[in-house]
Amino acid sequence: MAWRGCVMKWAKTEFVSPRNTTSRSCRLSFYNQQRCGFRREAKRPDTKKGNVSQETNPSPPEAGTPGPPPPPKAPRPTLFKPLMFTVGFTGCSFGAAAILQYETLKSRVQTAKHEEESEKFLQGSQDMAYWHDWWNQLSGFQQQLILLMSMADDFWSSLTEGQRTVTGIIAVNAVVLCLWRIPAMQRRMIKYFTSNPASKTRCVPMILSSFSHYSIIHMVANMYVLWTFSSGIVSLLGKEQFLAVYLSAGVISTMVSYMCKTASGRLYPSLGASGAVMAVLAAVCAKVPEAKLGIIFLPVVTFTAGNALKALVAIDTAGLILGWRIFDHAAHLGGALFGVWYVAYGHKLIWRKREPLVKLWHDMRSRGAGGSRPGGAPGVDGGSGGPGPQ
C-alpha cells in the first residue's frame, strides 16, 4: 500500500505539473505582451480587447508610444497670508518691546531698593569674620564650584549689554543647529525651519527660519557679524528695541524673498539669519557711515562702514538680477533696506509713538495693584513706563 501510495502520488505530480507549467507560461506570455504593447490584440474579440485595455490603462506608456499630456503648471502661491503675518508680527514685536522696556525699568527700580536695604542689613549685623567662618565650613568641591560661578559672573559682567543680549540669540541658533543633526527631526525641521513660498506652512517658518542654520560655517559667519555689531546697535536703539528690530527684520526679509521667488518662479527653500543680520549691519553702517571696519583675516585692509554697506547692496543686487543661488540675495536686500529705513524713518514712526500703549499697560497694571491693595499706588512713578525715545 505504501508503494501504491507513492506511485499514485508520483502519477498525480507528473500529470498535474505540466498543467501548472502551461498556465504559468501563459501568464508569463500575457505579461510580456502587456509590456510590449497591444498592437497584436486586434484579432481577438472586442470583449477581450476591451477587458485588456481596461486593465492596461493604469500602466505607464512605453518609449515608442506617445505619453499622456504634461500636467498643467501649478498656480503661483498667494502671499496674502504671509503679508498679513508680517504686518501683525512686526506690530506685536514692537508692542511687546515697549511693554518689556516698561517692565525692565520697573524691575530695576525695585532691585535698586532691595540692594540698598540688603547693604544696610549686612553692614549693621555681620562682619568679615562671619563670612570667613562660613567659607571654612564648605567642602573643597563647594568652594571650587563657587569660584567657578564667580568667574562666570565676572565674565558675564565684563560683556557689553549688546553682547549679553545676542548671547541668547546665539544659543537658540546653536540648539537649532543641533536639531538638524537628529534624523528623526528632519521632516519637522524642513517643514517649520525652512522658508519656502510653495510650502503649505508658510507663516511660522518666516520667523523660525531666521534661527535655523544647517551648516556650521554659515551659522558661525552670521553670529560673528551679529556679535561684532551688537554693541553698536544696542547702544543706538536699546535692548528692547533691538530685539523688535531683529525679529521684524527676519520676517520682513523672508517676505521679500517670498515675493522675489514667486515673481521669478524659482520656488526653493531658504534658511538662515542673514536677513536679520543684514538689517543690524545696515542700521549701524547707515547711522555711523564714517566708522572704520576691517576684515578678520586681513587686519591691514580697512574701509568705512558706508562703503561696506554700498558694496554689500551692490553684490546682492547683482546676484538677484543675475539669478545667483549661492545665497538668498532677496532676503539680504530686504533686511538691509529695512535696517536703513528704520534708522532713518521707522524709529520716529514706530518707536516714538509707543507712549499710548505703555500708558494703557501702566493703567492695567495699576488697576491690578489697586484691586489687590485698596488705595495702592502704581508700582512705578511716571506714566510713560520707560525712558524717553532713544
Description:
The protein has 390 residues and is mainly α. The chain has a domain of 240 residues: Rhomboid-like (Rhomboid-like fold), CATH 1.20.1540.10. Helix content is 69%, strand content 3%. The chain has a two-stranded antiparallel ribbon with strand order 1-2. A hairpin with a 2-residue loop joins strand 1 and strand 2. Helix 3 crosses helix 14. The chain is globular and about 90 Å long. The N terminus and C terminus are likely disordered. It comes from Seriola lalandi dorsalis. Belongs to the peptidase S54 family. It is an enzyme of class 3 (hydrolase). GO terms for molecular function: serine-type endopeptidase activity. It catalyses: Cleaves type-1 transmembrane domains using a catalytic dyad composed of serine and histidine that are contributed by different transmembrane domains.
Q: What's the rounded overall pLDDT mean?
A: 79
Give Rg in angstroms: 35 Å
Number of helices: 14
Q: What would the CATH topology of the domain at 79-111 and 160-366 be?
A: Rhomboid-like fold
Strand content: under 5%
DSSP E strands, number: 2
Classified in CATH, the superfamily of the domain at 79-111 and 160-366 is: Rhomboid-like
Question: What spatial form do the alpha-carbon principal axes imply?
Answer: globular
Largest sheet: 2 strands, antiparallel
Give the structural class: mainly alpha
What separation lies between the terminal Cα atoms? 110 Å
- Major beta sheet, strand line-up: 1-2
H and E string = HHHHHHHHHHHEEHHH
Q: Which ranges are low-confidence, i.e. pLDDT below 50, for 5 or more consecutive residues? A: 1-41, 46-58, 372-390
Helix content: 55-70%
Biased composition (Basic and acidic residues): 39-49
GO molecular function: serine-type endopeptidase activity
Membrane topology: Multi-pass membrane protein
GO cellular component, one term: mitochondrial inner membrane
